[in-house]
């Protein structure tokens, strides 16, 4: 067994131009259909979690001067954060459905082509 030949072929394979396969294109389309919903859900989730945390800090007196006004602002911020976190998943589902509908035809066509080639 010539290990130098195997090593040289593996290095040459790294630098050879790669053919774009249909499976890779299908994965990219699937990722593209889901990415908008994922980005929105993570962004809204992080922001609303931070709002909830700031509200908790105000209501516990960690931030602010600990008077009734700071407590009320903390409760309002906390409720706003809870509502934002609560509506995040339904909004995500709607956006995901919209993205899947947008790319459904292309994905189904490509999947059919791949399955026909495999036969």
3D architecture notes:
- The protein is mainly α and 119 residues long.
- Helix content is 87%, strand content 0%.
- It has helices at residues 3-15, 22-60, 68-118.
- Helix 2 runs antiparallel to helix 3.
- The longest helix has 51 residues, at 68-118.
- The mean pLDDT is 91.
Features:
single chain; 119 residues; mainly alpha; 3 helices; 87% helix
Count, helices: 3
| Mean pLDDT across residues | 91
Secondary structure category: mainly alpha
**Topology as a string of helices (H) and strands (E):** HHH
Oligomer: single chain
Largest sheet: none
Distance between the termini: 35 Å
Question: What is the percentage of strand-forming residues?
Answer: under 5%
Rg value: 25 Å
Number of strands: 0
Query: What would you call the shape?
Result: elongated
- Which stretches of 5+ consecutive residues score pLDDT under 50? none
Provide the helix percentage. over 70%
Short description:
With 119 residues, this protein is mostly helical. The protein contains 3 helices and no strands.
């Amino acid at each position: 067994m010539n290990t130098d030949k195997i090593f040289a072929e593996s290095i040459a394979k790294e630098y050879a131009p790669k053919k774009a396969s249909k499976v890779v294109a299908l994965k990219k389309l699937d990722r593209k259909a889901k990415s908008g919903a994922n980005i929105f859900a993570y962004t809204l989730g992080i922001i609303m979690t931070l709002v909830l945390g700031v509200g908790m800090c105000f209501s516990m007196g960690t931030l602010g001067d600990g008077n009734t006004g700071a407590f009320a602002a903390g409760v309002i911020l906390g409720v706003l954060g809870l509502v934002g976190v609560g509506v995040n998943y339904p909004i995500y589902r709607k956006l995901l459905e919209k993205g899947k509908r947008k790319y459904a035809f292309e994905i189904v066509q490509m999947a059919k082509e791949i399955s026909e080639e495999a036969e």
